[in-house]
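Listing S7. Sequence submitted for prediction.
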Amino acid sequence: MKRIAPAPLTAQGVREAVDWAIMTRRSVRAFLPTPVSREEVEAILGVARFCATGVNMQPWRVHVVTGEAKDRLTKAIAAIHDDPDQDALLRDAYDYYPREWTSPYIDRRREVGWRLYSLLGIEKGDKVRMHGQFARNYRFFDAPVGLLFTIDRVLGQGSLIDYGMFLQTVMVAARARNLSTCPQAAFLKYHGVIAEMLGIPDDQMLVCGMSMGYADESAIENTLVSEREPVCTFTTFHQNATETTP
C-alpha cells in the first residue's frame, strides 16, 4: 500500500475501522496455540514502522521469538523467577513505574489488579497463586509469538516517546488482523538473561516485551476490560486570553 493513497473505504468506514482497532485493543492474558506466520508478523511491523518519529530517527529494534527459541527463553526466565535467591539479585533495566506511588495512579493499579485476581479466584494474600499467575508473563501467556523491543542506550527521552507510538501502532495493526497483544514491562527484570540468550549487545536497552496471537475468548481473564477516564477529566480547552473552558 502506498503512503499517499486514497482510503480503501468510505470516510465513515475508515473511521469506524480505526476506532474499532484502537478501542477493542486490550491486554490479553490467555492465547490460543493457533500459529501466527512470520509473514503476518512482518506485515504488522511493516505497518508500524510508519508511525511518527522525531527527525525520522526510527529508534526501535525488535526481536521476535517463536518455537524452540521462545521455549528456551521462557524456561530460563522461569527458572530464575522461581528461585528467590537468584531473583532477588536482579533489577529492572530502567524505572518503568514510579518509585513512589500516589493517587490516582496507585488506585487505578490496585483496581485493575484486584479485578483480574478476582476473576481468577485468587484471594488477597495468596502469594503462591499470585506468583503462578505472574509467572505466566514469562511464557508470553502461551502466545505463539513473543516480541522483545530494544533501543540504543545513547538515545534520549524523546526516542522513548517515539517508541511508545511504535508499540501502539504494532498493537493496533495486530488488532486490525484479528490478533491480540499484551505489552509487558514484566520482562525488564530479566534484561540480562534476554540479552545473553538472544545475543543483544550491551549498547541496547530492553524497552519491554509483548505477547501476540489469537485470544482465547473462553478464558475468564480475557473478560477483563479496564476502565478509562472520560475526556473531560484530563482535558482543558483554552479558547482565548481571558477564558478557559473545562
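Caption to Listing S7: primary sequence and predicted C-alpha cells for the chain studied. The chain has eight helices and six strands. The chain has one domain: 11-245.
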